[in-house]
Amino acid sequence: MNAWKKTAVLALMSASVLMAKPQVTILATGGTIAGSGESSVKSSYSAGAVTVDKLLAAVPAINDLATIKGEQISSIGSQEMTGKVWLKLAKRVNELLAQKETEAVIITHGTDTMEETAFFLNLTVKSQKPVVLVGAMRSGSSMSADGPMNLYNAVNVAINKASTNKGVVIVMNDEIHAAREATKLNTTAVNAFASPNTGKIGTVYYGKVEYFTQSVRPHTLASEFDISKIEELPRVDILYAHPDDTDVLVNAALQAGAKGIIHAGMGNGNPFPLTQNALEKAAKSGVVVARSSRVGSGSTTQEAEVDDKKLGFVATESLNPQKARVLLMLALTKTSDREAIQKIFSTY
Ligand code: GLU
User: Fold this and answer.
1) Staple 253 to which of 29, 232, 258, 306, CB 3.0 to 4.6 Å?
2) pLDDT digits (tens, 9 = 90+) for 26-39
3) How far is the CA of 171 from the centre of ligand 1 (A)?
4) 127-141 in b/e burial notation, b at 16+ Cβ within 10 A?
């Protein structure tokens, strides 16, 4: 080959490298983003009715950004989410991200339990590559459906270099939230997600990504949790406190074989006295009792009205009850020692 031809071939090769689109896999689990209803102006619809291929075909603009592959993990409303699906999802995300060619994974998900799935993956994915959860509050057949723009924005976040090593993120309503901090705060509004203790970590506006900050807790590669050989997660129940509370649900949880109890306490994680006695007994019998709060923001602190050390409890600090449940399930795969689990809550 003469020098001129060589230069032309090299130029063509580098142009194709420059033009090569990033490869992104979208794992679909169901939810409203894959929902379909009979009317564009009525609220009733079925979550998870639309397959991943149809979901992707509805947002053709994402194909200009990346080479997209779709896989169906489940077709459920996320109120049907289970530990089994979390394990399957985490294992598949790890497999995909270990492949050199996969640059990011996006998970389409119902919004009801998106925060728990995101936090579970935040603690179990072993990669710095971007992992983005996205959903919708209005089904695809609804007027002003939010799913298509949310998905377009999610792909933009996933392929953005600044998303590397941010931990798992949630993209909804033009906002980027860290998995550890995000929670669903509104049952129906398109701005349903917020991070009450820290605020959003960035925004994505018609695909333009801007980060302001990031989560400071360990995640992904820095997390000690490894689910690669785990087939089942330990049972952890959440009990919601109220005036006139009883010991009935504590005893029911114990009878059902719970290894851990998250108590969604009043205020700074306070139980009703009768309930507290039952929880103390449970803790002393070896079940891990973790105090969280039904308040929605702030921390359930170790030293206030409840003497955790004396009663054998753990304080979940700034994790809400549903996120505390995820962390306790993972913690129990390693230990059931109170001190060690308190340290885990103070770390993650
Ligand atoms: N309950 C359904 C779910 O979480 C619909 C809620 C939604 O996706 O917005 O999958």
Assistant:
1) 258
2) 999 998 888 777 78
3) 15
4) bbbbbbbbbbbbbbb
**What would the pLDDT profile of 37-96 be if each residue is shown by its tens digit?**
778 887 877 777 889 999 999 999 999 999 999 999 999 999 999 999 999 999 999 999
Is 112 close to ligand 1, i.e. is its CB under 6 Å away?
yes
The HSE-up count of residue 160 (CA atoms within 13 Å, CB side) is 20
Mutate to test the pocket of ligand 1, among 46, 107, 111, 113 (most ligand atoms within 8 A of CB): 111
How far apart CA 283 and CA 285 sit, in angstroms, is: 5
Among protein residues, the one with the nearest Cα to ligand 1's atom 8 is: 110
- What are 294-297's contacts with CB under 8 Å, separation 24+? 294/240, 294/241, 294/264, 294/265, 294/266, 294/321, 295/267, 296/183, 296/185, 296/196, 296/320, 297/196, 297/197
The one-letter code for the residue type at 34 is A
Task: Give the whole-angstrom CA distance, residue 57 versus residue 209.
Answer: 23
Residue 146 Cβ inside 6 Å of ligand 1? The answer reads no
> pLDDT digit string (tens) for 172-201?
999 999 999 999 999 999 999 999 999 999
Q: What value does the mean pLDDT of the chain take?
A: 94
For 63, residues 6+ apart whose C-beta sits below 8 A from its C-beta are none
Q: Is 342 exposed, middle or buried (0-12, 13-18, 19+ CB in 10 A)?
A: buried
pTM more than 0.85: yes
Structure token digits, residue 242: 């109220």
